[in-house]
Amino acid sequence: MGERQIRVMTVDDHPLMTAGITSEINSQSDMAVVAQASDGKAAIELFRTHRPDVTLMDLRMPHVGGLEAITAIRSEFSRARIVVLTTWAGDIKVLSAFKAGAVGYLLKDTLRTELIDTIRRVHMGERRIPPEIALQLAQHAADDALTPRELDVLRGLAQGSPNKLIACDLSIAEHTVKNHIKNILSKLDANDRTGAVIIAARRGYIDL
Q1: CB of 177 closer than 8 Å to CB of 167
Q2: How far apart (Å, rounded) are the C-alpha atoms in residues 31 and 82?
């Protein structure tokens, strides 16, 4: 009698992605997909029912997103092993995922080469951070994070709003908005408003 299979749950709102991942996992003799969810709300409910050994979690999904689902599952099942599968490589998204309780982070374009090995390693209790992700974290480790108010102003910049409108929307003075923008440019090492938005989106501060 062989060892018990690794029981995997997939959480992704793209049917083709789910089908591909499921096929790859089920082709392995030591693992099997036991549940599939297309959003975070269903993931939480299915986790309670199936108690998978490893959960593969997308971040951007309708209704309840991946980060919320990870937080909810880990608050109820502290030993849940959750690996994020995403197209986002930004250091802020990575940090948010690990703070929520993820133990692995994989980019979807590396799944063909790294998915199966990651599932096995995570099941054995290891954490999984690909070298390119670790490099991004190291590059920004000493950076000052944007404050919640700076993020509010940044979202206004991303919408193309002028300072006056941002000030009105946030109920703050226009000169305060200018000071926030100055801080944002400095923290993101950006030359102008457009550059700040691009860098912020790449790092995962905002979604465009």
Answers
A1: yes
A2: 15
